[in-house]
Specification:
The protein has a single domain, classed as Neuraminidase, CATH 2.120.10. The strands form seven sheets. A six-stranded antiparallel beta sheet has the order 1-3-26-25-24-23, with no helix packed on it. Helices cover 1% and strands 44% of the residues. The chain has one helix spanning 254-258; strands at residues 9-12, 14-17, 28-31, 45-50, 56-62, 67-72, 77-82, 86-91, 111-113, 119-123, 128-133, 138-143, 145-146, 149-150, 157-159, 165-169, 189-193, 199-203, 209-214, 220-225, 232-238, 244-252, 268-270, 276-280, 283-287, 293-298, 305-309, 314-319, 322-327.
């Protein structure tokens, strides 16, 4: 297991404000390894694009439209943000539409676009993976049960080039979380939903699996564990047929939590070189494929997720009540 290097350099970052930035926010880059300098420029600017959300999550960039979608889970809304146009509502209700919810987090969480540019959602509130038909704003349930029992509350997802969907299913969306009377499964799983519709368990022993991503060559599946007692990022081998093998700890954030940093391992995205930009204690950690912690974009708040957008060099960050952006030297996968 890689060890966390000493905190050698904390370099100020310019903070550009499109609105008054919330008090207590930090705008710094912590540089632990010289390799970070090739990814995050010295003059990187952290922008606040929008704010006043209850809990922003699940950003996904739509290249065909040139805009970002992201969730505000408690407000049951998917928002759209586009350069020059700003913020607008894309979908509401985004998740639960009934009258007797099983929890308070009713909206969607993670979002992704499939090969046909259709929006696929980790539908927290309806406890399912769903695909949206934007011609009439109906949705198709892709998975909502495993062996006849309802899923907990799907959290995040990533789509393989084969069409397989890998997703996490902790109980965060349920009232009472682990002790919820609505919880039907006795574990919180990581799943593979094949393109043919077969649902299988990839892992069931992580406690609180959260963010999920694939390496550029799709041979490694990364899973963040948002358990304060086991705050790690796991790496699993993926075969050419999409099956997932045994996992190993890529990085352990326990030392960062002991420092009192806000947040736990959560959502993440990957650049062309396979570096993880992973939300976690303190902000967005940059973790090399070999598990080295290169540094952190410090946001000063609990940070939920990140994705690349624009020309691939812009990193969009959902951080508590805010939507942030920083322009990098590296580019995301797919750009």
């Amino acid at each position: 297991m890689p060890t966390d290097p000493p905190h050698e350099r904390i370099v100020p970052v310019l903070l550009l404000m499109t609105a008054a930035y919330a008090s207590g926010a930090s705008a710094q880059v912590e540089r632990l390894d010289p390799a970070l300098d090739a990814l995050v420029p010295a003059d990187a600017a952290l922008e606040r694009l929008a704010g006043d959300f209850e809990w922003s999550e699940g950003p996904a960039w739509r290249g065909s439209g040139g805009y970002l979608l992201f969730s505000d889970i408690p407000r049951n809304t998917v928002y759209r943000w586009q350069e020059g146009e700003g913020l607008s509502v894309f979908l509401r209700p985004a998740g639960y539409i009934g009258s007797d919810p099983a929890g308070r987090e009713l909206g969607t969480n993670g979002l992704a676009f499939d090969a046909q540019d259709r929006l696929v959602m980790a539908d927290h509130g309806n406890r399912q993976i769903a695909r949206l038909d934007e011609s009439n704003y109906t949705r198709t349930t892709l998975a909502d049960r495993f062996e006849g029992k309802r899923l907990n509350s799907p959290n995040d997802l990533v789509i393989h080039s084969s069409g397989d969907i890998y997703f996490t299913d902790p109980p965060y969306g349920l009232e009472g979380v682990e002790r919820s009377p609505a919880k039907e499964l006795d574990f919180s799983g990581v799943y593979r939903l094949s393109a043919a519709g077969e649902l299988t368990v990839v892992a069931r022993d992580l406690g609180f699996p959260n963010g999920i991503a694939l390496s550029p060559d799709e041979r490694i599946l990364y899973v963040a564990v948002s358990d304060p007692d086991n705050p790690v990022w796991m790496a699993y081998e993926v075969s050419s047929s999409g099956e997932v093998g045994g996992g190993r700890v890529l990085f352990d954030a326990s030392a960062l939590l002991r420092e009192g940093r806000s947040g736990v391992p959560d959502g993440m995205t990957v650049d062309r070189e396979g570096n993880l930009f992973a939300s976690g204690p303190g902000g967005v950690l940059v973790i090399a494929p070999d598990g080295r912690h290169l540094g952190t974009i410090l946001t000063g708040r609990a940070t939920s997720n990140a994705t690349f957008g624009d020309d691939g060099s812009a990193l969009y960050i959902t951080a508590d009540a805010d939507l942030l952006r920083v322009r990098l030297t590296t580019r995301g996968v797919g750009f």
